[in-house]
Amino acid sequence: MDMTNQEYSRYVEQKAKPSPIWKNLTWAFCTGGLICTGGQALLNLYRGCGLSEGDAGTAVSVTIIFLAALFTGLGWFDRLAKHAGAGTLVPITGFANAVVAPALEFRSEGLVMGVGARMFAIAGPVLAYGISAAVLYGLVLCLFFPG
């Protein structure tokens, strides 16, 4: 069966199910909001335990990253993300999942060549470009807006 690219595109459009965009947006909004609400509750808890605002914020970040990594390892994160969509990816939970998921996938190749080498397969470029952009913006700030 020979098809041109245009014919194939029309064929795919005919067969593809329409995406329920409003349902997806609502789920993503609610799930992301629940994650952030949980983060705020943790912040209040840590501040109630006597931590400063900065230390409490750090403790919340560490806790949420740990929980997302744990849930990824247990297979719960993927089930949640299947229904919640981008709501699980926008907060730092998505970053933890992006680090842990490839590491788990390649653990059979060993700790160094499997887990270690693949851990940052997805998150590595984000880190590299994020750090590079931060350095560049910092240099621009220092050069053009000293003081």
Report on this model:
The protein is mostly helical. It has one domain (21-144). 78% of the residues lie in helices and 0% in strands. α2 crosses α3, α3 runs parallel beside α5 and α5 runs antiparallel to α6 (111-118). It is extended. The termini are far apart. The model has no long low-confidence stretch (mean pLDDT 85).
List the SSEs and their pairings.
Blueprint: H1 5-15, H2 21-48, H3 53-74, H4 76-84, H5 92-105, H6 111-118, H7 123-144
E-strand count:
0
* Pattern of helices and strands: HHHHHHH
What is the rounded distance between the termini? 68 Å
- The percentage helix is over 70%
Tally the helices: 7
Shape: extended
How would you sum up the major sheet?
none
> What is Rg?
21 Å
> How many structural domains in the coordinates?
1
What structural class results from the helix and strand content? mainly alpha
Mean pLDDT over the residues? 85
Indicate the proportion of strand residues.
under 5%
State the low-pLDDT regions, or none. none
Comma- or semicolon-separated keywords:
single chain; 147 residues; 7 helices; mainly alpha
Please outline what is shown here.
With 147 residues, the chain is an all-alpha fold. The chain contains seven helices and no strands. The chain is extended, with a radius of gyration of 21 Å.
